C-alpha cells in the first residue's frame, strides 16, 4: 500500500503530494525529492529507447530500510513517485504497475478538465479519491 | 400582483394544493382541469369561482401560476368564510380558515391539513394572518383539524415568527425565501431578491430571451438572480423539488424541511414518484440549457469543446476550483467535451452552486447523461415539449414532465448498468472470444488449420512406424509394423529383406506388395497418409491416428531421400521376407538391380555405383555398397580396383584399396557408412540388378552401368563376378514368387525407381564431389607443408 504518492511536474516541482499521516510528512517529502535524482538518471539512461508502457514504469528507484520508492514517468516528463512500506507483504511488481496505471489515468482525467491549467496544483477531488483508495487499499 | 401573506399552514397547504394541481409539475402552470375541480370542490358558486379567478389574475394570465393559485386559494378561503371577495380581503382577513374543498382529494388535503396543523404547531411560525386550517372537505376531519388547529393557532399566534414562511409579495419567491430562510434561519425575509410574480415571470422571459443572447445572460447579473430564483422556484413547486434543492448534506434543519419532506412524501405518494431527486432538471431548466447549448453548438448531438465550455462557465463567476469540480462531475465520459446532457448537468450544477448549494461529491443520477439513443429521443421529446410549453404551457410540458423524471431516474441506472454491462460484456465477450478461439481449433479438426501440425513428409523412423502401423491396420496385419518398428536397425542386411518385401509386395495386389503398385499408389497413399496425418495432427482428440495407408514409402521417397524408402523397404522386406507376401513381389526388381550391383562394384564406376546404390536399396551385402563406394572413389582417385574380388567385404577391401589418402577414403567410407541405405545395395546388388535383364526398366540403368562398366573396365574378373552375382540374383529371382502381371505397374514402378535412383545418384555425385574437394584441400595443405619444409631443407 502506498504510503506516499507524489506527482512531479516536468520542471521537478510537485503538482501533488500526499502521504498517509502516520509519520511526519516531511520525511516522505524528502524521500520523494531525493528520488527525483534517480528518476532523472533513469530517464537519461533510457535515451533513445522506445517509450512504451514498460519504459514508463521505472520500477524500484531505491529501497531504504523501511520503504521502497517506485517511479513512473509519462511521456510529458511528468513523474509519479510512490513510496510503499517495505514491511508490507512485498507488493508484486504488477500491483505497483497497476497502481501507476491508475494514477496515470486519473492524471489524464485531471488534464482533460479545461479548468485545470497545466502546472497548477492538482486539486481534483476525483484524483484525491483515487489516491486515497490506493493508499488504503492494502491496509 | 398584490402581496399575499400566508400563514405557515396556509403556505403548506397551498403549496400542496398547487403541487396537486400542478400534476405535471410545470411549476407555474396549473391546468384548468384540476383547478376547476378544486374550485368546484370548494363548493363555491361558479360566479364566485370566476370572480376568484379573475381576481387572482389567472384569467389575465391564462393559467394559474403559483402566485395566482395561492391567491385563488386564499380567495376561496375568504369566500368560504363568507367574506366578500376582494383583493384586499386576501390579506386583511384574519384567521381565514383554509379553503375547504369537497372532493375526493380532500383526504389528502385533510391529511395535509393535519400535517400542516401539526407542523404549524411545531413550527409556530405564523404571520399575522393565522387562519386556523379548518377541516377540509370531510367535515369530520375538518372539525378535528379545526379543533386541533384552533389551539395551534393560538399557539402559533403567540409566536409571531418572522413571516419567513409567509409568502412574500410574490408566491413564486416564497419558496425562494423558504430556501433562503433555510440557509439563513435568522434572515427571515432579509433576502428576497425578487419581489412580485410579475418580475418573476419577466426574468424568466428575460431568461428566455437572454438565452438567445447567450453570453448576455452570464454577463449581466440581473438575469442570473432571476434565474436563480427561477431555478430555485422551479425546483420547489413540485414538492419533491423542494427537497431537491436541499441536498442532504446542505444546510437545513428548519421547519421548512419538514414541511418539504411532508409535501414530498405526499408528492411521492401522489405521483408514485420518481421525483424525489434533488437534482432533477425541470423542463424549463432543460429548455434553457438546451438553448444555451445551441448558442455554443448548434448541433444538439454534437459536443462542446472544453475550451468553449470553460469560457462559458467562467462567466458564471464561480471560482475555477468549483468549475473544475463541476466539470469533473459532468464530463461523464471524460473526453474533454460536453454533450448536451453533460452540458445540462454542468449548467445545472453551476446554477445550483450559484444558489448556494454545495456540489455533490459525485454526479447525481438525474444529471447523469442519458444513453445516446434515449438522449436523442429525449431531445426530440424536449423540442416539442418546449415548444408546447411556450405555446401552451399547460399541456405539453406537463405531459412530458412525468416522463422526463422517470427517464432521468432510469437513465442513470440504465446508463450505469449499461456501462457496466458493456464493460462486462466487453470483458466477457473478450473472454468468450478467447475461449471460443481456443475451442475452435480443437473442435474443428477438418478446418484448414492443418498447418500447425507438421505433417511428416520426411520419413522419420517413428513416422514410418506410424504409417506402417496405419497401413498394417488398414491393409495388413502386424507383419509390416514390426518391420517398421526397427527402422533404425535397417542396415545393409535389411536391404535384402526389403527386396524380398518388394517382391512380395508385387504379388499382393493391394498396392503395397507389388512394386508397381507400390510406386503407383504411393502418391495417393502418401497423400492419404498426409491427409490422415493432418487429421491426426489437427485433431488430437482422435483416439489414434488412422492407420497409415499402404505405401507410405512412396511419399517418403517423394519428399525425402529415396534411401529412407529403400531402407524401410529393405527393413520390412528383410525382417519378414517370407511373412509378407507383398515385399516379395517387389524384390525382383531391386534384386536384378542388386544383382548387377556387386558386379558393378567391381568396375567401380561412379555412375554405376550410384545407380547401383539407387536401384538396389536392398542388398545382400551392405558393406559391398560401402566398399563399392569407397572402392569406387578409390578407383576414381587411384584407379585401383582390380583387387576387389570379394565384394562381400568391401570395407576391408576399401581400406587396403585406399592409397592416396587414407583419411579421405576412410572419410568416404564413413560417409558411405552413413548412407547405408543408399549404399546398401551399392554395387553388388546393383551389379546384380544390372545383370538381370528380365525386368526391362530396372535393368536399364543396370545395363547402362554394365555398359559403362564394360567401357570403363574391361576387367574380366568383374565381369565374371558380375555374371556370377547376376546368376545368383537370377537364381534368386525364380525362387521369389513374383507376379508377372501388371507390367504397366512394373514399368511405372521401375520408372519411378529409376528416377529415385537418379536422384540418389545425383546426391551421391554431389557428395563425392564434396569429398573430392576436401581431399584436394587436404592435398593442397599437405603440399603447402611440403613447401614450408622445403625451404628448411634448402636452408
From TrEMBL, chain A:
Q: Which domain of life is it from?
A: Eukaryota
**Could you say which protein family the record assigns here?**
Belongs to the TRAPP small subunits family. Sedlin subfamily.
Its protein name is Trafficking protein particle complex subunit 2-like protein
Its GO CC terms? endoplasmic reticulum; Golgi apparatus; perinuclear region of cytoplasm
List the PANTHER family hit by this protein, alphabetically: TRAFFICKING PROTEIN PARTICLE COMPLEX SUBUNIT 2
Please give the organism.
Answer: Sapajus apella
User: What keywords are annotated for this sequence in UniProt?
Assistant: Cytoplasm, Endoplasmic reticulum, ER-Golgi transport, Golgi apparatus, Transport
- Name a biological process GO annotation: endoplasmic reticulum to Golgi vesicle-mediated transport
Q: Where is this chain's protein located in or outside the cell?
A: Cytoplasm, Perinuclear region; Endoplasmic reticulum; Golgi apparatus
| CDD domains according to UniProt | TRAPPC2L
List, alphabetically, the InterPro entries matched. Longin-like_dom_sf, Sedlin, TRAPPC2L
Main location class:
cytoplasm
From TrEMBL, chain B:
User: Has keyword ATP-binding?
Assistant: no
Domain EF-hand: residue ranges: 318-353
UniProt biased composition (Polar residues) = 115-126, 145-156, 407-432, 496-531, 562-578, 611-622
Bias (Pro residues) occurs at 543-553, 584-595
Per the record, its GO cellular-component terms are: cytosol; plasma membrane
Disordered as annotated region, ranges = 105-236, 377-432, 469-623, 637-723
Q: Which organism is it from?
A: Sapajus apella
Q: Which residues form a coiled coil?
A: 754-785
Pfam families in UniProt: EH (PF12763)
Q: Which InterPro entries match?
A: EF-hand-dom_pair, EF_Hand_1_Ca_BS, EF_hand_dom, EH_dom
Q: Which residues cross the membrane?
A: none
Please cite one Gene Ontology biological process associated with this protein. endosomal transport
Where the record annotates domain EH, the positions are 10-113, 285-369
What are the UniProt keywords, alphabetically?
Answer: Calcium, Coiled coil, Metal-binding, Phosphoprotein, Repeat
Task: Tell me the domain of life.
Answer: Eukaryota
Looking up PANTHER family in the UniProt record yields:
EH DOMAIN, RALBP1-ASSOCIATED EPS DOMAIN-CONTAINING PROTEIN 1
- Name the encoding gene, please: REPS1
For this UniProt entry, the molecular function terms from Gene Ontology, in alphabetical order, are: calcium ion binding
Which protein are we looking at?
RalBP1-associated Eps domain-containing protein 1 isoform X2
Amino acid at each position: 500500500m502506498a504510503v506516499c504518492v507524489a506527482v512531479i511536474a516536468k520542471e521537478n516541482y510537485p503538482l501533488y503530494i500526499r502521504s498517509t499521516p502516520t509519520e511526519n510528512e516531511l520525511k516522505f517529502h524528502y524521500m520523494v525529492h531525493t528520488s527525483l535524482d534517480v528518476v532523472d538518471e533513469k530517464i537519461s539512461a533510457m535515451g533513445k529507447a522506445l517509450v512504451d508502457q514498460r519504459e514508463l514504469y521505472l520500477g524500484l528507484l531505491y529501497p531504504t530500510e523501511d520503504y521502497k520508492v517506485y517511479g513512473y514517468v509519462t511521456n510529458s516528463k511528468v513523474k509519479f513517485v510512490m513510496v510503499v512500506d517495505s514491511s508490507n507483504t512485498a507488493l508484486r511488481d504488477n500491483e505497483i504497475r497497476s497502481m501507476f496505471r491508475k494514477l496515470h489515468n486519473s492524471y489524464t482525467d485531471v488534464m482533460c478538465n479545461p479548468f485545470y491549467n497545466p502546472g497548477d496544483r492538482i486539486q481534483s477531488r476525483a484524483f484525491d479519491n483515487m489516491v486515497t483508495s490506493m493508499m488504503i487499499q492494502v491496509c | 400582483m398584490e402581496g399575499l401573506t400566508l400563514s405557515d399552514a396556509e403556505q403548506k397547504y397551498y403549496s400542496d394544493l398547487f403541487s396537486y394541481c400542478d400534476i405535471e409539475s410545470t411549476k407555474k402552470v396549473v391546468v384548468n382541469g384540476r383547478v376547476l375541480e378544486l374550485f368546484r370542490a370548494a363548493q363555491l358558486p361558479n360566479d364566485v369561482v370566476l370572480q376568484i379567478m379573475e381576481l387572482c389574475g389567472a384569467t389575465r394570465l391564462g393559467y394559474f401560476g403559483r402566485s395566482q393559485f395561492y391567491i385563488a386559494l386564499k380567495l376561496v378561503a375568504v369566500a368560504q368564510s363568507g367574506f366578500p371577495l376582494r383583493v384586499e380581503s386576501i390579506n386583511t382577513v384574519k384567521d381565514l380558515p383554509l379553503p375547504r374543498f369537497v372532493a375526493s382529494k380532500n383526504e389528502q388535503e385533510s391529511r395535509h391539513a393535519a400535517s400542516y396543523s401539526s407542523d404549524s404547531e411545531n413550527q409556530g411560525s405564523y404571520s399575522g394572518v393565522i387562519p386556523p386550517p379548518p377541516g377540509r372537505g370531510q367535515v369530520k376531519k375538518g372539525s378535528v383539524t379545526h379543533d386541533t388547529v384552533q389551539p395551534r393557532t393560538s399557539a402559533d399566534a403567540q409566536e409571531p415568527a418572522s413571516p419567513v414562511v409567509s409568502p412574500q409579495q410574490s408566491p413564486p419567491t416564497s419558496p425562494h425565501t423558504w430556501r433562503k430562510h433555510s440557509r439563513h434561519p435568522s434572515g427571515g425575509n432579509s433576502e428576497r431578491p425578487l419581489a412580485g410574480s410579475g418580475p418573476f415571470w419577466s426574468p424568466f422571459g428575460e431568461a428566455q430571451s437572454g438565452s438567445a443572447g447567450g453570453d448576455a445572460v452570464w454577463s449581466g447579473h440581473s438575469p442570473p438572480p432571476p434565474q436563480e430564483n427561477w431555478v430555485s422556484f422551479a425546483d420547489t413547486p413540485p414538492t419533491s423539488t423542494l427537497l431537491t434543492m436541499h441536498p442532504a448534506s446542505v444546510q437545513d434543519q428548519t421547519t421548512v424541511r419538514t414541511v418539504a419532506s411532508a409535501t414530498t412524501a405526499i408528492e411521492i405518494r401522489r405521483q408514485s414518484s420518481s421525483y424525489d431527486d434533488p437534482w432533477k432538471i425541470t423542463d424549463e431548466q432543460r429548455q434553457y440549457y438546451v438553448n444555451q447549448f445551441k448558442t455554443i453548438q448548434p448541433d444538439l448531438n454534437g459536443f462542446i469543446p472544453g475550451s468553449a465550455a470553460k469560457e462559458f462557465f467562467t462567466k458564471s463567476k464561480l471560482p475555477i476550483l468549483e468549475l473544475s469540480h463541476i466539470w469533473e462531475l459532468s464530463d461523464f465520459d471524460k473526453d474533454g467535451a460536453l454533450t448536451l446532457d453533460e452540458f445540462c448537468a454542468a449548467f445545472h450544477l453551476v446554477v445550483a452552486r450559484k444558489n448556494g448549494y454545495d456540489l455533490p461529491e459525485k454526479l447525481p443520477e438525474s444529471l447523469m447523461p442519458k444513453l445516446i439513443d434515449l438522449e436523442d429521443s429525449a431531445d426530440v421529446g424536449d423540442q416539442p415539449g418546449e415548444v408546447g410549453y411556450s405555446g401552451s404551457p399547460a399541456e405539453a410540458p406537463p405531459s412530458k414532465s412525468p416522463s422526463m423524471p422517470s427517464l432521468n431516474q432510469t437513465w442513470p441506472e440504465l446508463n450505469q448498468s449499461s456501462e457496466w454491462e458493456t464493460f462486462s460484456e466487453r470483458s466477457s465477450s473478450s473472454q468468450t472470444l478467447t475461449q471460443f478461439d481456443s475451442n475452435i481449433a480443437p473442435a474443428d479438426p477438418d478446418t484448414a488449420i492443418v498447418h500447425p501440425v507438421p505433417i511428416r513428409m520426411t520419413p522419420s523412423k517413428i513416422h514410418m512406424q506410424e504409417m506402417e502401423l496405419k497401413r498394417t491396420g488398414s491393409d495388413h496385419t502386424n507383419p509390416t509394423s514390426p518391420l517398421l518398428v526397427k527402422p533404425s536397425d535397417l542396415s545393409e542386411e535389411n536391404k535384402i529383406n526389403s527386396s524380398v518385401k518388394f517382391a512380395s509386395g508385387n504379388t499382393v495386389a493391394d498396392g503395397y506388395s507389388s512394386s508397381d503398385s507400390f510406386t503407383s499408389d504411393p502418391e495417393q497413399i502418401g497423400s492419404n497418409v498426409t491427409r490422415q496425418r493432418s487429421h491426426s495432427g489437427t485433431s488430437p482428440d482422435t483416439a489414434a491416428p488412422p492407420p497409415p495407408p499402404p505405401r507410405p514409402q512412396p511419399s517418403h521417397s517423394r519428399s525425402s531421400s529415396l534411401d529412407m524408402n529403400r531402407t524401410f523397404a529393405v527393413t520390412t522386406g528383410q525382417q519378414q521376407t517370407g511373412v509378407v507376401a507383398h515385399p516379395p513381389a517387389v524384390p525382383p526388381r531391386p534384386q536384378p538391380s542388386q544383382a548387377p550391383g556387386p558386379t558393378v562394384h567391381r568396375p567401380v564406376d561412379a555412375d554405376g555405383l550410384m545407380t547401383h546404390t539407387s536401384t538396389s536399396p536392398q542388398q545382400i551385402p551392405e558393406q559391398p555398397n560401402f566398399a563399392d563406394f569407397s572402392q569406387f572413389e578409390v578407383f576414381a582417385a587411384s584407379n585401383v580396383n582390380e583387387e576387389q574380388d570379394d565384394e562381400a567385404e568391401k570395407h576391408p577391401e576399401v581400406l587396403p584399396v585406399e592409397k592416396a589418402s587414407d583419411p579421405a577414403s576412410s572419410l568416404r567410407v564413413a560417409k558411405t557408412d552413413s548412407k547405408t541405405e543408399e549404399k546398401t545395395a551399392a554395387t553388388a546388388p546393383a551389379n546384380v540388378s544390372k545383370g538381370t535383364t528380365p525386368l526391362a526398366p530396372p535393368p536399364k540403368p543396370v545395363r547402362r552401368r554394365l555398359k559403362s562398366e564394360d567401357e570403363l573396365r574391361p576387367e574380366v574378373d568383374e565381369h565374371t563376378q558380375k555374371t556370377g552375382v547376376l546368376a545368383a540374383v537370377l537364381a534368386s529371382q525364380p525362387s521369389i514368387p513374383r507376379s508377372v502381371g501388371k507390367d504397366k505397374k512394373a514399368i511405372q514402378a521401375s520408372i519411378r525407381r529409376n528416377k529415385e535412383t537418379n536422384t540418389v545418384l545425383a546426391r551421391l555425385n554431389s557428395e563425392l564431389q564434396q569429398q573430392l574437394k576436401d581431399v584436394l584441400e587436404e592435398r593442397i595443405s599437405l603440399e603447402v607443408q611440403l613447401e614450408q619444409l622445403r625451404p628448411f631443407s634448402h636452408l
